[in-house]
Amino acid sequence: AQSVTQLDSQVPVFEEAPVELRCNYSSSVSVYLFWYVQYPNQGLQLLLKYLSGSTLVKGINGFEAEFNKSQTSFHLRKPSVHISDTAEYFCAVSEATANAGKSTFGDGTTLTVKP
Amino acid sequence: DTEVTQTPKHLVMGMTNKKSLKCEQHMGHRAMYWYKQKAKKPPELMFVYSYEKLSINESVPSRFSPECPNSSLLNLHLHALQPEDSALYLCASSQIFGELFFGEGSRLTVL
């Protein structure tokens, strides 16, 4: 079994400031890791993913995340946020040999970017 | 623009009605999913179809009935729902291993 913990339920930040959204996971097997973003009244959209290889992963909209196996973390970062980044962010994990649809989602982090 | 299309975007139904949610993808994905999402909560997996066969049913009540007519289409038939079933219903697709591609969802209200 696997689990995901998003350590911050809400993150307020000013425009152009850096931001980090934290995600820890637990699994007894190799995993794939994902960050999704959900804007109001929309579905989820993939920001970035870690399947294998380089532990620093770059995604869309200037986001990046680093897979840290020893700390079982996959924190999401952006050096300078915009108002348009205000949204709900979900970290998700799936077993590397399992159907991706069995992904386990964290409870989400609400990022609010203030002017 | 999403490549997974869901209809209708909004649906209001009474507890005795029968309705259906529809989902379509043309990315050649062989796995399709239904998720339920309540406000301020993560998506909850309901059903998974792999190669057009139901592979996962997460103990969903029988008032929800999925159907996969072909590799591009996924339906969710609704009957005798309860007010607590009101939620955003998300369809997604994927290759068997990989990220999920979500539609924009169908917002269901049960009166």
Descriptive overview:
- The complex is a heterodimer of chains A (115) and B (111).
- The mean pLDDT of chain A is 93.
- Chain A is built from no helices and 12 strands.
- Chain A starts with a strand and ends with a strand.
- Chain A has strands spanning 3-6, 10-14, 19-21, 23-26, 31-38, 44-50, 56-58, 64-68, 73-78, 87-95, 104-105, 109-114.
- Chain B is mostly beta strands.
- In chain B, strands 2, 4, 5, 6, 9, 10 and 11 form a 7-stranded mixed beta sheet that branches. Chain B has a 4-stranded antiparallel beta sheet with strand order 1-3-8-7, with no helix packed on it.
- In chain B, strand 5 and strand 6 (53-57) form a beta hairpin.
- Classes of the chains: A mainly beta (115), B mainly beta (111).
Quickly describe the structure:
By secondary structure, chain A is mainly beta.
Task: Summarize the helices and strands and which ones pair or pack.
The complex is a heterodimer of chains A (115) and B (111).
Chain A: E1 3-6, E2 10-14, E3 19-21, E4 23-26, E5 31-38, E6 44-50, E7 56-58, E8 64-68, E9 73-78, E10 87-95, E11 104-105, E12 109-114
Chain B: E1 4-7, E2 10-13, E3 18-25, E4 31-37, E5 44-50, E6 53-57, E7 64-70, E8 73-79, E9 87-94, E10 101-102, E11 106-110
Parallel strand pairs in B: 2-11
Antiparallel strand pairs in B: 1-3, 3-8, 4-5, 4-9, 5-6, 7-8, 9-10, 9-11
Considering the chains and any ligands shown, give keywords for the structure.
heterodimer, A: 115 residues, mainly beta, 6-stranded mixed β-sheet, 4-stranded antiparallel β-sheet, 0% helix, 54% strand, globular, B: 111 residues, 7-stranded mixed β-sheet
